[in-house]
Amino acid sequence: MRVVIAGGHGQIALRLTKLLSADGHEVVGLVRNPDHEADIAAAGGKAAVLDLEQADADAVADVLAQADVAIFAAGAGPGSGDDRKDTVDRGAAALFADGSVQAGVRRHIQVSSMGADRADTLTDDESFTIYLRAKKAAEDDLRSRSRDLDWTVLRPGALTNDPGTGNILIADQTGRGSISRDDVALTLAGLCTATASIGRVLELITGETPVTEALANL
Questions:
Q1: Fewer Cβ in 10 A, N or C end of the chain?
Q2: For 9-52, how does the pLDDT look when each residue is reduced to its tens digit (9 = 90+)?
Q3: Burial of 33 (0-12, 13-18, 19+ CB in 10 A)
Q4: Residue 128: what pLDDT?
Q5: Tell me, what's the pLDDT at 78?
Q6: pLDDT at residue 140 in the model
Q7: What is the pLDDT of residue 196?
Q8: CA dihedral in degrees (43, 19, 100, 214; nearest 10)?
Q9: Low-confidence ranges of the chain (pLDDT < 70)
Q10: Mutual orientation of helices 181-191 and 11-22 as an angle, nearest 10°?
Q11: What's the distance, CA 119 to chain centroid?
């Protein structure tokens, strides 16, 4: 299986690259900074240098050629300005989906955020509200592509760097909670082939069910 991950140098993406490459899959991490190539190689993947804020769909499709799965795990980050929350969390996500359609990669997974559907009521932090709105706009764009993409949106809860437990709660609605980046990566690896997740927006927090079982029960 060939998997292309946008935001390939992110904490979740590097964990996911290690998991997939250890299972014998080919992983390509899409990054805009060539200095990050070594970290992706150390995780077992290959880097493709491409700035999704500057590229066009043709360039993205070239990277996605012959991929089996496309995963959007990029984000502007908490220290970014409001403009980049739109150009990355919404715009780059839409461009990556455009590339998937053009390259004929049907399986498309997009990492969003818990609360994206409640951006205007969840917080008084204007910057975080803008971030959630961008994530929701990216979700809405992806949901409009069901004719061309077998998509899944994953909304993790509050992210931690705690060691993963391998046990999760994944559902259309889970209630608020947290989840380790280890377990998000493990879940994404399983979602690559979890057909019951296609066409669904799923929330994810720490739970009591092993990932494999939880995905089988969707």
A1: N
A2: 999 999 999 999 999 999 999 999 999 999 999 999 999 999 99
A3: exposed
A4: 81
A5: 64
A6: 96
A7: 97
A8: -160
A9: 78-80, 122-124
A10: 50
A11: 19
Q: What is the 3-state secondary structure (H, E, C) of the chain?
A: CEEEEECCCCHHHHHHHHHHHHCCCEEEEEECCHHHHHHHHHCCCEEEECCCCCCCHHHHHHHHCCCCEEEECCCCCCCCCHHHHHHHHHHHHHHHHHHHHHHCCCEEEEECCCCHHHHHHHCCCHHHHHHHHHHHHHHHHHHCCCCCCEEEEEEECEEECCCCCCEEEEECCCCCCEEEHHHHHHHHHHHCCCHHHCCEEEEEEECCEEHHHHHHCC
83: number of Cβ within 10 Å: 10
Tokens of 80: 């970014």
pLDDT value at position 124?
Answer: 66
Q: Cα dist. 26→17, 108, 194 in Å?
A: 9, 16, 18
Written as one letter, the residue type at 181 is R
Distance, CA of 172 to CA of 12 (rounded, Å): 21
Domains of the chain and any CATH numbers: 2-216 (3.40.50.720)
- For the chain, what is the mean pLDDT? 94
